[in-house]
Amino acid sequence: MRLIDLKQKEVINICSCSSLGCPADVDFNCITGRIIALIVPGPAKFCGILGREKDIIIPWEAICQIGDDIILVKLPEGPPPPPPGPPRTS
């Protein structure tokens, strides 16, 4: 599957039964080549005149299924957790 194929699918949160939009980008690990998260643009503010809300970051682990037309994700209510990053050193 190519990125353009993912960008044409609608993302649905199965916890709230709401549409989050279509992915605009992906976050991936350069070392492993694996996708870390899908990035969906936030909803428009006041008809798009005032910009957009913050982007929705969907961790790869939250994706339940990718179908022909939609991507089902399981995100709890509230903002999604940030994608896992490299381990921090103290």
What does this structure look like?
With 90 residues, the chain is mainly β. The protein has one helix spanning 3-7, and strands at 10-13, 18-21, 25-28, 35-40, 56-59, 63-66, 70-73. A 4-stranded mixed β-sheet has the order 2-1-7-6, with no helix packed on it. Strands 3-4-5 form a 3-stranded antiparallel β-sheet, with no helix packed on it. A hairpin with a 3-residue loop joins strand 6 (63-66) and strand 7. The radius of gyration is 14 Å and the shape is globular. It starts with a helix and ends in a 17-residue tail after the last strand. 14% of the residues are buried. The mean pLDDT is 82.
Q: How would you state the average pLDDT, rounded?
A: 82
Strand arrangement in the largest pleated sheet: 2-1-7-6
Could you state the order of secondary-structure elements as H and E? HEEEEEEE
Number of DSSP helical runs: 1
How far apart, in Å, are the first and last alpha carbons?
39 Å
Number of strands: 7
Q: Percent range for helical residues?
A: under 10%
The largest sheet is: 4 strands, mixed
Structural class: mainly beta
Low-confidence stretches: none
Radius of gyration from the alpha-carbon trace, in angstroms: 14 Å
Name the overall outline: globular
Share in β-strands: 25-35%
